[in-house]
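Quick one, T. Sequence first:
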Amino acid sequence: MLYLHKKTLGLLICTGLGLTVYVWKHVGPSGGNSLPSQEEAHLLQWISQYQNTVDESGVRVKEEIACKVALNVCSCIADKESFRLPFSNWIFPRVNAHNLDSAFLESRSDPEKVKVHRAQEYSSFQKRSYTAANGLIVAEANSPLQYPTQGVVVRPLKTIILPGLALKTNRASMYNVYLRAALGTFDVAAIVEGVSLKGENENHMTLSSPNLSTLNKQLSLVTYTNTVFHPRTAENVEFGTEDHRSFFTIKIQHKRTPKLYNSGHQGEYNISALVTLATKTFLRYDKLRDLINSVRKYYPTVTIVIADDNQHPQPVTGPYIEQYFMPFGKGWFAGRNLAVSQVTTKYVLWVDDDFYFTSNTKLEKMVDILEKTTLDLVGGAVREVTGYTATYRHTISVEDGGEEGDCLHIRTGHHHTIQGFPNCVVADAVINFFMGRTDKVREVGFNPRLARHAHLEFFIDGLGLLHIASCSDVIVNHASKIKLPWAKTDTEKKYDKFRYSFNTEDNELFNEVFYFTDRFKCMTSQ
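Structure tokens:
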């Protein structure tokens, strides 16, 4: 039933986007009139951008394919509630929609000014992250020009010989080609007799020869020197003749320095040398000590890093324990940043301070999948006192939405099973018990403004940076939270006040992070 529900949802979304129209300018085959839409116009504009001869009146959209095309006009649509029964939302989870633009802007005194500021910030971000390598280049057919399509790299301010340049054409009395660049200059490593060169050591160079083989020999010796320093950018080089033009990309970048960990791994995994356990604690020293005791039962020499933002901190001592103190109430993600920053091993294992290890908490399984795959992070499962085991697997996608922002879509589920690991699947977000490559987790980081309520935000920030798995056969237990109100201690009541309160300020921060920082206009979730 769940798959049927998702299929129905997909059909509704396609219909809602307006892409199920027949894109006839007059009358479709069924005899009904066509219904022009914004999405139809975008699709036809996209097609005609690359095929100028398209006659729109003769184009019919293939509905089942067109609804999958990203057209920069995303929208967030919630499922309509057709019936209400006890636990109906749990059995048939509905998709909820949240319009971040209205939710955030309606509380601003000058919403238009905020929108302008966000647009300026986004423009600056694009300038920092966009290079010529991101641009679309279409190689036209029947060109006599031979050139590299990818894989050309030069270090900043260094020189390379451009590989693969050649002209292949019919007989002519004179053969002429040119090269043009913006961030560098051209020259030749050696001069071939019979070739005329103009523009050596400049950003526009021409080569001419009455002999084609001689010209191609000279082209094989053409050099490119980067002259504008940038540690990571790209250059689109134009290579052409009088009648033909081509473009290819040269990446300009320093060689990336690898981060290698000398863990002495030979044969069996040395978990203590490979993994550091990181956690954050607040008002739950009793739970923290239970966690430490359970870890020591199975992994007596694994280092445990604790981030502590208690108002009256208590020392937590013992071998292989590092406790770091923070300002009072600094928060959840700030604590994660601090704890992860002190990890020196290849992998970091994140656990909450109210988890505890059992015989099913086999860290070797997590290490094994990270060592044998290109995955960056693998989540496990958390078993509650009720016996229910949760993996909290989600898929996350971002749909282009144009100037107003993009659409964020979060769904319960996963992508596919990982070959060789039948209990593991690929997902975009996992539960609060995960092991990751330390350098990759640091690269994504945790927004320190999110003090009390956060989890998925880390995975949203890591979208496109992290390759994530979820394994159901590595299980940590969760201490019971079931306690009658009058049986709770003052410390437990204080913790609940901090942890579970959700006020107007929290709502505004949530909307600001998603609307302004992440530039979403709306989101749907399940």
